Amino acid sequence: MKIALAQINQTVGDFPKNAEKICSYIERARRRNADLVVFPELSVTGYPPKDFLDVPAFIDENLRTLDTIASRVYDISAIVGFVDRNKRRHGKFVHNAAAFIQDHKIVSVHHKSLLPTYDVFDECRYFEPAHTISPVKFMDSILGISICEDIWNDEEFWPRPLYEIDPIENLISYGANVMINISSSPFTVEKHDKIRLRMLIHDAMKYKVPFIYVNQVGGNDDLVFDGNSVVINAQGRLIAQAASFEEDLMVVDIENPAVQIQPRTYSPIETVHMALIAGLRDYVIKCGFKKVVIGLSGGIDSAVTAALAVEALDNENVVGVLMPSRFSSQGSVDDAVKLSQNLGIAYKVIPIQDVFETYQKTLQTEFKGIPFDSTEENLQARIRGNILMALSNKYGYLVLTTGNKSELAVGYCTLYGDMSGGFALISDVPKTMVYELARYINREKEIIPLNSIVKPPSAELKPNQFDQDSLPPYDVLDGILKAYVEDARGIDEIIRIGFDEKVVREIIRKVNRNEYKRRQAAPGIKVTSKAFGLGRRMPIAHNFMCQ
Amino acid sequence: MKIALAQINQTVGDFPKNAEKICSYIERARRRNADLVVFPELSVTGYPPKDFLDVPAFIDENLRTLDTIASRVYDISAIVGFVDRNKRRHGKFVHNAAAFIQDHKIVSVHHKSLLPTYDVFDECRYFEPAHTISPVKFMDSILGISICEDIWNDEEFWPRPLYEIDPIENLISYGANVMINISSSPFTVEKHDKIRLRMLIHDAMKYKVPFIYVNQVGGNDDLVFDGNSVVINAQGRLIAQAASFEEDLMVVDIENPAVQIQPRTYSPIETVHMALIAGLRDYVIKCGFKKVVIGLSGGIDSAVTAALAVEALDNENVVGVLMPSRFSSQGSVDDAVKLSQNLGIAYKVIPIQDVFETYQKTLQTEFKGIPFDSTEENLQARIRGNILMALSNKYGYLVLTTGNKSELAVGYCTLYGDMSGGFALISDVPKTMVYELARYINREKEIIPLNSIVKPPSAELKPNQFDQDSLPPYDVLDGILKAYVEDARGIDEIIRIGFDEKVVREIIRKVNRNEYKRRQAAPGIKVTSKAFGLGRRMPIAHNFMCQ
């Protein structure tokens, strides 16, 4: 049996284009003599459709689109992810579903049993779980069709399974001998190699059946799907792997497989680099933008952001803006110019001193006798934000903010200032990982000026200001943040890891008190196991670990 | 049996204060000779604790706090909402639970069966549903203890129940003859009178048992809990109703009840008015602020916001700021001054013209030959935002934004401009309801200058600009928005209601394309059945109904 894995990149709610792509992949798979072509989870609607799932008109158009696709299926069979109606009297109105299509007809429909409802996932919000599970006879095989989370609950693989039932075990017990899983499984660093692939190999060996795993690819808002679709044979050997972060059509003969292959391996920083580029490119394209504009401070965060943007969009679509004040060092200006030259991007220089002084004059009666403080620091950041937004408004550029995760965690950033912008590209990249990215970007030649990497980080909003005046060293900060934000550890546990109690309390207090800033932050790309944003939902008004 | 309904206002994660309040209500109920005192859902932690439920240290402190509370229970019994651990091998780590406490001991624990996971609710994200349901013998009665959503699934009351099981039916079948429901049921306009109370009366009549319903009160971020705890007797008659939007301790003898009472009725606009005041007061207090600052344009939105703030916080805690430009009419300035005088609040006048001109000079080379457009309009709004934030930074005021729901829906607002601020008080109030609120605020005397109500609304960001130049009349706009946002109707359905197709398409396109602005909006108070924010989760990058 020749199975085509169609690893495609869809846009949420773009039914005509989504259908066109699915049909073109069906055609390509047929030409390559595949018996069956398999598409990712919810490939008709794009994933995640979020609250459009509550709009009946959206469900209707998805069903009409599925019918159109079905009418184009002949001389090949297809498995397509879509939203099915729940026809029962109770429960949620729709199912997350897979259609098995043959000879222009939907032969059977398979519902998702396990609905992830944690982190960025909200599937219990929308979907009714499967009430029946049944395998499908196809050629000489019996296919066990499952959807994403359905394979993530093996009792032996996971120390504590989240769900009581195991749909894979059920499918096996009903006689399935080829497992097909359609997924929209988002990227986080090390997830594919360390979890997903190991789990699939474990399951194939356990049940002695091949696993065909088809994952979505591309970016949708804060999530990037890495593709990496794979085929594992009945001996638990990886025999095919589709591209990472790119569309792919991979045809595999599962009865006469090629020899075992080595998994394509990338270092963690390589995958983060790919994820950020793919995610940014898709956000820009899917939102209808062409060019981005970035404030260049001469520091490492804006340099890394600009370098990634050039890789995602090409240098002619990236505009840098230098906005020096009297606190900006000549070195910073030089570093930003050098970066622009290295990247081959246009840059503008728009000094903020006059506007800043006019604000001060406007406020001088009001603030008479009160010393310069964070008010004036924030004002400078806000003037820069306003200038970037003016360029955005005038020319239709998307503003990229350049803040990293460590800053966002502790509120070392200005609302409506450096946080102004439509997409916060590296907002889930901890500062220590920003350094790694910079070195990776420079792996062949100096793109990011070395000085931006080696100089002590500074916001340059007052004289002789350095990040480390108000924050612990970034390796300490990032260690505490990982323990608190990603691993949800309490104060006592973090102290036991070996961090200083006073520092731990101060950092956690800052994280908790700055939720209000993050609530107003632009979306960014999730790369860690716990990003701020939709995957971490915290109250603003509370009093837990705030003292 | 005398039951005390303890309708309290807790703060999320403030365990010492939450415990202190619960203990003081236990003491008060004992002094009033109650046999049983009942507290709302999750009264130990505050509701909603959101992702703190994923932090083991939070669960631990909640359990220790419950033990402390239990040690103070004697000569009275108590039912207290808390987070219990799930001791099974599968599933979510915790239960939403009620502890039944007697003689210093937790006698039994009752888990919530139905976990709301829609709109603002995420309970499947955190909680494992009840695996067993059992009533409790108490004095001569058998208590059926349930938690919030557990009572919201009656087959006869709801046209299409969301869940397959009905815990109330189960409790009755196990012999319960007094039903106790502990809730944290947030306010939306008309929900109490038109749904909740009717449902409770329906259920009491259906099962012929009394229902004791104890609801949380107070604001937590975007949600306001209205209290309105009630006792319905076995004949389905309302015999007691606690305060709306205020803490209350109500002791009711359910065997020897007072005669039937009439439900206290408020008009919809009265309840919205109370909800906004209660929600703002709690947000300010629970976030640790004292004073708020509001930009006063002379228009109706900022006038209503300021008037509500004065009712919530008193006039000495509200500061108005007039920031006229050369596009501001003298009438607007006069209206803002008159409002400030009527409210008795301090106001400052900080003109923005100099800063605006300096921005224009700074950008003149860049924007040479390009006409004045929304860029310059937005710049003015952003200067005002910056000035308010400067006052916030310098003095520790909370900035209230003044935008209404209709503007936010169609993006008729400026990111980092008039959207700057920590709390968007009326962001779920449609413009037509803002007018109703203004008239209600003026019910006894002119507080909001009549001119602010009757003049055509204008952003005054360019000469002769009126809202209705770019938007349909507000009654049309609000009609379309209710159909699309609140009722999730498709384009065809909205046209069938009687709206013009071109207008409908244009409005829906604007709503869909402006999700990026709303993602960065400050939280506001939910008053309608569907507020923007955490209850409406839409993708930004998509292509559904965008053309």
From TrEMBL, chains A, B:
Function statement: Catalyzes the ATP-dependent amidation of deamido-NAD to form NAD. Uses L-glutamine as a nitrogen source.
Organism: Candidatus Brocadia sinica JPN1
Chain positions recorded as ATP binding sites: G295, L296, S297, G298, G299, I300, D301, S302, T402
One of the Pfam families matching this protein, by short name: NAD_synthase
Positions bound to L-glutamine: Y118, S185, K191
Keywords, in A-Z order: ATP-binding, Ligase, NAD, Nucleotide-binding
Family named by the database record: Belongs to the NAD synthetase family.
Lineage per the UniProt record: Bacteria, Pseudomonadati, Planctomycetota, Candidatus Brocadiia, Candidatus Brocadiales
Protein name: Glutamine-dependent NAD(+) synthetase
